[in-house]
Write a structure and sequence with these properties.
Helix content of chain B: 40-55%
Distance between the termini of chain C: 23 Å
CATH class of the largest domain in chain B: Alpha Beta
Shape of chain C: elongated
CATH architecture of the largest domain in chain B: 3-Layer(aba) Sandwich
Number of strands of chain B: 11
Structural class of chain B: alpha/beta
Strand content of chain B: 5-15%
CATH architecture of the largest domain in chain C: 3-Layer(aba) Sandwich
Chains: A alpha+beta, B alpha/beta, C alpha+beta
CATH topology of the largest domain in chain C: Glutaredoxin
Shape of chain B: globular
Oligomer: heterotrimer
Largest sheet of chain C: 4 strands, mixed
Structural class of chain C: alpha+beta
Strand content of chain C: 5-15%
Order of helices and strands of chain B: HHHHEHHEHEHEHHEEEEHEEHHHEHHHHH
Radius of gyration of chain C: 18 Å
CATH superfamily of the largest domain in chain B: NADH-ubiquinone oxidoreductase 51kDa subunit
Chain lengths: ~375, ~450, ~170
Amino acid sequence: MSEQPLFKVTIDNITIEVPAGTTILNAARKIGGDVAPPAMCYYSKLQGSGGKCRTCLVEVSKGSEKDPRPMPKLVASCRTTVMDGMEVKNITSPKVLDARAGVVEFLLLNHPLDCPVCDQAGECHLQDLSYEHGKEGTRYEFQRRTFKKHNIGPYIQLHMTRCILCYRCVFVADQLTAKREHGILDRGDHSEIATMIEKSLESDFIGNVIDVCPVGALTDKTFRFKNRVWFLKPMDAHRDCPTCSGKVTLWNRGDEVFRVTARKDEWGEVENTEDGKPAWICNTCRFEKKQTSDWVIEGPRMISRQSVISQGHYAGNIGMHKPNETFSAVHGGRQPKLMMDIHTASEVNKPNIELSLINGPAHSTDFNSKKD
Amino acid sequence: MGVKLLLEKAHVEGIRSYEVYRREGGYRSVEKAIKTMGPEAIVEEVKKSGLRGRGGAGFPAGMKWSFIAKPEGVPRHLVCNADESEPGTFKDRYLMEFIPHLLIEGLIVSSFALGSNNTYIYIRGEYAWIVDILEQAIGEAKANGFLGKNILGSGFDCEIHVQRGAGAYICGEETALIESLEGKRGNPRIKPPFPAIQGVWQRPTVVNNVETLAAVVPIINMGGEEYAKIGVGKSTGTKLMSACGNINKPGVYEIDMTISVEEFIYSDEYCGGIANGKRLKACIPGGSSVPILPANLLLKTAKGETRYMNYESLSDGGFATGSMMGSGGFIVLDEDQCVVKNTYTFARFYRHESCGQCSPCREGTGWMEKLLYRLEKGQGKSSDIDLLWDIQRKIEGNTICPLGDAAAWPVAAAIRHFRDEFEWHVTHAAEAQTRNFGLAHYADPIHVPTTV
Amino acid sequence: MTKFSETQLTEFNRLVARYPEGKQKSALLPVLHLAQDSFGGWLSSETMDYVAELLRIAPIEVYEVATFYSMYNLKPVGKYMFEVCQTGPCMLRGSDDIVAYIGEKLSIKPGETTADGLFTLKTVECLGACGYAPMMQLGKHYREHLTKEKVDAIIDECRKTAAANN
């Protein structure tokens, strides 16, 4: 390996050294935390991705040691490489925050508010993005665009209305499968992911489009409406697979396997295996192996503790910390037996009423004891 | 009469044919360049000429040429951008249609300078009949030894191919054009790498506008220094202006960039004044994407000085009180035109032409179109105007390619200078459907404070 | 059966030969024009698959391109397509009236084709003839400085040509 010179780059006042050729985004990810710009279209494991969504825009306040002029426009940090002595402002730049809020608004403009019925909810990058970088409400008062529905086969569910046109799935088909069968059709705000002629996507590795999709546009049909991700326990598991690495994350409830995905890192990207290659998984592992007996379970999967998925799952360094505010602390020293036990304090309900015996739904009259 | 370098012979009978063009002194520059100058000397002349790209951005052409990478064994390409699609601009079409050999001549010299053995003309698909004209000119040039193998015994081989686009404004952006030339969707590439390093088929490529390449002919013939003496400041040489809208004599004019805007509009040599005896309300001096100016800021700058038809003067005052030369698409609005409606058609245009790759442009252009439609139809709210302003602000500078800026600027400028007309569409919604806002105060002299 | 004739194949080969070895995909746009002109003025999925096969590329690559550019018709169109420009400079010179007039005269709305399959009316964005507005594209050529009288004459002309060819 040839020695790459190291470049010093300062992002949000934190300086690190990275090899020449590193992008600003990847340098920022090395620092981590809030310094790493959000990325909706960039995917480090897909060649050519990035540059499109504009959420990772940053301000370059100093070009380099040699040419300290600032860059005139905000730049896409995922596609701009660092220079020695470069100074970058991400969350310390009001310009960036303003532009990013704008991008979030644009991305949500035509995005349906169907999170309650969307399988991606809870692990959706657009939800996170809007929560962290967006503004409350939208100023858009027109009808959202809709598309003709396409069936792309028994494994993958396509919801075009949710798509943000990141092109990741196109790169997956180009780079992981022998022949790409879907693509971006039409142009401008009518652009859509489609196959043109009704056709199912059936290549061995095409299921990976589900893992790379940042939103709920491409979801697992075998998991559709089965459960919410935050009710499931992610477990790392593996099997001897002739096609792929066989290293996956199982999403279980009890012993039941609801869903199989690739293992994802803290940026939501597929992890590498020991040989340094991304552990994409094959369709067989993803869609066909839904028995616990198909797998060797390794243990619980680390999920960012900010994620809704981790809520209440595990103790210790994964999942939520045990709260310090105990009931008695909150109740000023009192020790109520049950938080649910409100009947002692309130008369609105009658616990002795057997609801199953009431014909039809219960009404307030069933609970209000007559005074007579 | 101003100097004419490009269109001087455009109306000579039969100039489309090789014989007449040659008789009128055509292809001299090829002989001069190939026999007496080397590629470096040509690039030097173009640099000296101060020629600025005529496609819209105005980047110095010689400098662009000097950026081209020359890795060993990798072919280089010159691509002529004839995807003229900016509303208001039709000069390249005129040049190619009437004097096609001028472009071919410029292309041969430029190809020689850049070392391009296969040069492509990417022409917008709608100009279908011009493809035949160009291919005929290429055939004639080849038959006379100016193209093909071993041109004029120099050992330099060159072929020119004409590639038709198929209806996409975005392909006028050089990297989108390259993608299209490769048989792909016209999605602009993310730069870097720049075309000069990795262009078409990953090879070093220079993309230049038709007019820029045609201007190489007089530059070689008269020398870069002589060329630079024409015009003023950094606006050297001559510029083709496409004049359209409510004027008496719409058409293509060659100007030497020393005349005033007033002369250009009112002189009989050029636009011939406003049609039907009406008064001038506003003008978009450089194609749909540049800021619109009301009459009072068009003829005089904010400082009260005469505004001239050149790069510097048209942009005097920045975007606050100035505009841009752009591609030279000079669109004139008379007193009975509605700025809101005009802005709406531009917004519709940009929505239609957005490639859809990056989110601010894909979503923002459609949103602006819907808001402008609503305002124009008298169904808008006054908050829509502020919203439009905010949307354009969030598109500008945040997109992959300049189409985002091009969509944002006309909206911004229209609101900046014609806000009361927009407001009138809200406050007098019903009336706005029956008549136009009119000239109002847009031609009133602007008070220029003077220090005594 | 969708297949190029001998002469069309010669043209196809000429188009492909303009690009470097292995870059035959570059010929896609011109070949789609050729196919559209050869097979009834529009591109069926059968036509597009044929083009993909000829250029040895995946069909989706052809679909992506054909749907991107506005000049490719993905549905059958009338024998004569009136593509009237409606962008700013043409609007300033009264293109709205021309569109309305054609629509009234042929009893169709923009985007529709007459029942006899003869005319399609389409509104398009700037065609680069702003100085000669209002204008429209008809086949390979532009018709400029349109007036109601000119539109009448063009429609008559088309009807006559169509009748003569039948």
